[in-house]
Specification:
Elements: E1 2-4, E2 11-19, E3 22-28, E4 32-41, H1 45-53, H2 58-61, E5 67-69, E6 77-82, E7 93-103, E8 107-114, E9 120-132, E10 135-145, H3 149-176
Antiparallel strand pairs: 1-2, 2-3, 3-4, 4-10, 5-6, 6-7, 7-8, 8-9, 9-10
């Protein structure tokens, strides 16, 4: 999908790539960029959700965010150690964000902003959707906004995309054993 309005009011570019059983997507608009992955997991939605909120088990299976602490209460902090291979090879980045959405067995999101919302902000979400009683669609999404989003994306997008793919496959493997 590509939409352009020459008056500068609307710019939407979307791409979709499917590799193996994972779907990658990206869209750009006048305010920023969204990207993420979708993957079907052969496990019920409650099992997928439980693994996503059990942060104490992250060191066992989550290669992208091996450490996280939060209550998931809206407005509470989420403290994470995130692996951005391309940006910081062989190290974990300390990240603190704020939980902004939490709907049991549906989706959860957290947001960060650096300096100010207008400078740069990001929103990360997990969404789970029951396909049937034994399969779940897992979506990882990231939204970058603010006037510095192109610069931040240039340094982090590939690492974050790879991290989303790694965590999706790791969760799939853990639940389909």
């Amino acid at each position: 999908m590509r939409r352009f309005l020459t008056a500068g009011c609307l710019l939407t570019l979307s791409t979709l790539a499917i590799g193996g059983d994972i779907e990658h997507y990206k869209s750009l608009d006048i305010k920023g960029m969204s990207f993420g992955t979708k993957l079907v997991i052969d496990a019920p939605v409650d099992s997928v959700w439980h693994e996503l909120i059990d942060t104490s088990a992250f060191p066992e299976w989550n290669p992208f965010t091996p450490l996280a602490e939060t209550t998931f209460a809206v407005g509470s902090p989420i403290f994470m150690k995130v692996r951005l291979h391309r940006v910081f090879p062989n190290s974990l980045l300390d990240v603190t964000e704020t939980v902004v959405d939490f709907y049991d067995y549906q989706y959860m999101c957290w947001r960060a902003h650096q300096i100010s919302e207008e400078t740069f902000n990001s929103k990360r979400c997990y969404k789970v959707t029951a396909i049937n009683g034994s399969q779940t669609l897992l979506e990882n999404t990231m939204r970058y906004e603010g006037f510095l989003w192109p610069l931040v994306a240039a340094f982090t997008e590939i690492s974050v995309k790879n991290g989303f793919e790694d965590v999706s496959y790791a969760l799939k493997e853990r639940l389909e054993e």
